[in-house]
Give the backbone structure.
Amino acid sequence: MSFLDKIGFTKLRNGLTKTKDDLFGRINRLVNAKKTIDDEFLNELEEIFLSSDIGYDTVETLISNIKERAKTDKYETDDELNKLIRDEVMKIFAVSTSAFKSYDFEHHKKPFVIMVVGVNGVGKTTSIGKLAHNFKKAGKSVLIGSADTFRAAANEQLEIWAKRAGVDIIQNPKTGDPASVAYDTIKAAQSRNADVAIIDTAGRLHNKSHLMEELKKIQRVMQKVIPDTPDEIFIVIDATTGQNGLNQVKEFSNALGKVTGIILTKLDGTAKGGIVVKINNEMKIPVRFIGVGEQIDDLQVFDSEDFVNALFGDK
Ligand code: GDP
Ligand code: GDP
Ligand code: MG
């Protein structure tokens, strides 16, 4: 592991402190106290998983897998018992093959276009700043489009992030038409031969059909420049909102017909980080990135192995 990767892992672990202390602190205490996988142990373990927002169906599978495992596998020390549980948590993550193993991904075309959607205040603009920073660091040229024309301050906020990331921004503070800014961004990305273009959009409630129509229009207008654009539509979800976040994913993907990935933010602010497991298992849409703080380097490529290791305090 490189030096930078290690810093990344430390940040991940620190960002997940609340969930780690709660979820795995409790598992550790249970393991210490009981030492044996019996019904009482499984009941308590089930309760711990449920309280961490892992989700009922996933917890059921997890518990029955651990029960089966306990029939055949020996576990003599606390460490072995802990490892058994960790292995099963690791397994339960749907394995999602992704271009986003890192920010230095192979893109099949240029510009690679990412549109970012979600409700208000979930962290869209912040995540775009962080994405841009990471792509830039990986040697990509990045252009950001400010298609949140709804709020006057939105341009300014995105401009600050663009500056921090050291990338260019396309904006038009005079227009109220987000599709036109998206159009300009794709045009500019083409003519500047940019690697990646990221489009910010205004927050909107998923049950407002005219606002969903507006998103589709942004898509259509970009497709006038490049058919099949955008390559990715990321929905941003605030990890502290629990079940509501899952509903948002469902509604946005129904309305748009396509959402390709989830950016799960504010994991540092919740002890219910188990929501990642739930989203991975219940949604057919993979978690691509996770936000573990407000700083520019607090967005991480989601890696289930690192995630579970960070929670169990390994490495
Ligand atoms: P938008 O309305 O979806 O564009 O949300 P913003 O990007 O403006 O973010 C709303 C608030 O959430 C800001 O105060 C951000 O600093 C904060 N935020 C975004 N991502 C994270 C995160 O991963 N962790 C924490 N703690 N705060 C975050
Ligand atoms: P209402 O009063 O219940 O109809 O809702 P609002 O007008 O307060 O809008 C709720 C949220 O939807 C706002 O905070 C905006 O982010 C978003 N919104 C409302 N109208 C528009 C619009 O025309 N364009 C965009 N992009 N967002 C809008
Ligand atoms: Mg925003």
Remarks:
- Residues 124-125, 148, 154 surround magnesium ion (ligand 3) (CB under 6 Å).
- The two ends are 11 Å apart (CA to CA).
